[in-house]
Amino acid sequence: MIKVHGLRKKFKDLIVLDGIDIEVKQGETVAIIGPSGSGKSTLLRCLNLLEKPDEGHIQIGDIMLNAKKYSRKEANELRRQTAMVFQHYNLFKNKTALQNIIEPLLVSKKMKYDEAKKVGEALIEQVGLAHKADNYPITLSGGQQQRIGIARALAVQSHAILLDEPTSSLDPELVGEVLQVIKQIAEKQTTMIIVTHEMDFAREVADKVIFMADGHIVEQGTPTAVLDHPQNPRTKRFLQQSISLPEYSLV
Ligand SMILES: Nc1ncnc2c1ncn2[C@@H]1O[C@H](COP(=O)(O)OP(=O)(O)OP(=O)(O)O)[C@@H](O)[C@H]1O
Ligand SMILES: [Mg+2]
C-alpha cells in the first residue's frame, strides 16, 4: 500500500508539488495523467527520493517517512520499496539483456549467480524475450529494451513499480507490445503507479486515474469517472486537447 500526504516540492521559487495526497491499495494500478510540466515525473521521483521532497509524509509498505526529517537508513529503506521504469530504458550497454535483468539481484540483493539467473530467465520469458537473453541492448528494438527494463524492475520484487511514460519515446508501432507487458503485470496484482499519455491504456488497465495540473491533483476516480465523465473544467479541457491533437501529415 502507498500513502502520500501533504507532499510539497519546490525548485527554487517554482512550486511543483503543492500538497499531494494519494492512496494506492495493494495490487492497484493507478494512472497519472496531466499536461506537461504539471509535476507528474517529480511526484514519482519524490516517492523514491530521486528528488528530495520538501514536506509531507510518504508511506510505502511498512516504511513511513517524514520528508522534513529522515535518516539515510530510512531513505534507503524507502527506496527499496519501489522500482522505477523510465521513459528511456537506462540499460547497461555492455551487459546482455539477461545480465541487465539480474544485475540488481547480484549487486543489491547479493544473490548467488545461479539463483539470480533462474529468476532472470523466468522474467525474460514473462516479457516475451527469452530468445534475446544474450543480446546486447544495441541489438534490441526500443520496445524490446523497454521490456527488459520492466523485467529488471520486476526482478527486485519491490513493493510497487513506478513507471514514468514508459512508452513515450517509442515508435508508435512498438508501443503496443510494451503496454501489453505492463497490462499482464497489472493483472498479476502488482502495485503500480504509471504516468502515461495513453488514455485507452489507462481506461483499460487502471483501477484509478489521477489528473494533475500545476502541482495539484485536480480530479481522481475510476477511469470511467475521470476519462468519460470528468467534472472539473480543466480535466475536460485536457482530455479534449489530448483527443484532438492533430495527426502529423506530409500531405
Ligand atoms: N531539476 C529541476 N530543476 C528545476 N526545475 C525542475 C526540475 N525538474 C523539473 N522541474 C520543473 O518542475 C515542473 C514539473 O516538472 P515535471 O518533470 O515533474 O513535469 P511532468 O508533469 O512530468 O511533465 P512532462 O509531461 O513534460 O513529463 C516543470 O516546470 C519543470 O520545468
Ligand atoms: Mg514527466
Automatic annotation (TrEMBL):
A GO molecular function held by the record: ATP binding
Location within or outside the cell: Cell membrane
CDD domains attached to this UniProt entry: ABC_HisP_GlnQ (cd03262)
Pfam families associated with the record: ABC_tran
Every ABC transporter domain range: 2-239
InterPro entries: AAA+_ATPase, ABC_ATPase_HisP-typ, ABC_transporter-like_ATP-bd, ABC_transporter-like_CS, MetN_ABC_transporter-like, P-loop_NTPase
SUPFAM superfamilies: P-loop containing nucleoside triphosphate hydrolases
Keyword Transport: yes
Keyword check for Transport: yes
Chief subcellular location: membrane
Membrane-spanning segments: none
Keyword terms: ATP-binding, Cell membrane, Membrane, Nucleotide-binding, Transport
SMART domains: AAA
Mode of membrane association: Peripheral membrane protein
PANTHER family from the UniProt entry: AMINO ACID IMPORT ATP-BINDING PROTEIN, L-CYSTINE IMPORT ATP-BINDING PROTEIN TCYN
Record-given protein name: Amino acid ABC transporter ATP-binding protein
Organism placement in taxonomy: Bacteria, Bacillati, Bacillota, Bacilli, Bacillales
